[in-house]
Amino acid sequence: MRNRLAETIAEKGIHDEAVLMAVRSIPRHIFVDTALENRAYDDRALPIGCGQTISQPYTVAAQTQLLEIKKGDKVLEIGTGSGYQASILCHMGADVYSVERHEELYHKAREILQELGYRPTLKLGDGTKGWSAYAPYDGIVVTAGAPVVPDDLIKQLNIGGRLVVPVGSKESQMMVRITRVSEDSYEEEQLQQFKFVPLIGEKGWD
Ligand code: SAH
């Protein structure tokens, strides 16, 4: 089922072999409720409690591909949720930091990731201001929809680092990639429309 899921997302445009390998390797059904297990390898988002969702596999893969991860890269994720995206990043050899604002999800993700043998550094809190203690990052991925690009995240990028963030209304967002080209210059690309749950916090939605 995992191989088939990887094929499906490859057909939709995911060509990064490391991302596809991670999708083939990680048991997504462990990250969802037992009642939803039989749908875990469909290419769709599923509820994970607290009104949140585990993102659609294609979306996870698309964001990860845009990050252009190399082994050993330091990556910050905002919105741990189920922990699935964090496990993909860990599997690809990244040094992963992830922030979640819902306590219940934070604990659940921590448990599952540990069980699977992944060791990201997790934090409970508002990720809209990033995580300055471990900055700068080679990659930052926001897995919830932001009203604007959170400026603190841009500041926490390494030179050459990439920020991947969906920006727009609560109903639909444009995937934006910002690359820090030098100390004070950035390149911005607007890629494709998506629909995420809202990024809630000081530099997000109320
Ligand atoms: N990456 C997750 C996707 C979860 S959905 C996965 O693979 O399952 C997005 C998550 O972002 C939700 O769990 C939501 O609670 C969280 N979130 C929203 N605003 C946040 C904020 N300001 N800081 C941290 N997490 C946030």
Keywords:
binds S-adenosyl-L-homocysteine; 9 strands; alpha/beta; 206 residues; 27% helix; two-stranded antiparallel sheet
Question: What can you tell me about this protein's structure?
Answer:
There is one protein chain. With 206 residues, the protein is an alpha/beta fold. It has a single domain (2-194), classed as 3-Layer(aba) Sandwich (Rossmann fold). It has six helices and nine strands; from the N terminus they run H-H-E-E-H-E-H-E-H-E-E-H-E-E-E. The chain has helices spanning 2-11, 17-25, 57-67, 84-91, 103-115, 151-155, and strands at 46-49, 52-54, 74-78, 95-100, 121-124, 137-142, 157-168, 173-182, 185-194. The longest helix is centred in the middle third of the chain and has 13 residues, at 103-115. The protein is globular. S-adenosyl-L-homocysteine (SAH) binds next to strand 2, helix 4 and strand 4. S-adenosyl-L-homocysteine is lined by residues 52-55, 78-79, 81-82, 84-85, 99-102, 105, 126-128, 143-144, 197, 199-201, 204.
Structural domain count: 1
Rg for CA atoms: 15 Å
CATH architecture: 3-Layer(aba) Sandwich
The helix/strand order is HHEEHEHEHEEHEEE
Quaternary state of the chains:
single chain
Judging from the principal axes of the Cα atoms, what is the shape? globular
Q: Which strands sit side by side, in order, in the main sheet?
A: 5-4-3-6-7-8-9
CATH class: Alpha Beta
Number of continuous helical runs = 6
- Sequence stretches where pLDDT stays below 50 over 5 or more residues: none
- What is the CA-CA span between the terminal residues? 39 Å
What is the helix fraction of residues, given as a range? 25-40%
Strand content: 25-35%
Mean pLDDT across the residues is 97
Count the beta strands.
Answer: 9
Q: Under CATH, the topology is which?
A: Rossmann fold
Structural class of the secondary elements?
alpha/beta
Q: What are the bound molecules?
A: S-adenosyl-L-homocysteine
- CATH superfamily heading: Vaccinia Virus protein VP39
Biggest β-sheet, characterized? 7 strands, mixed
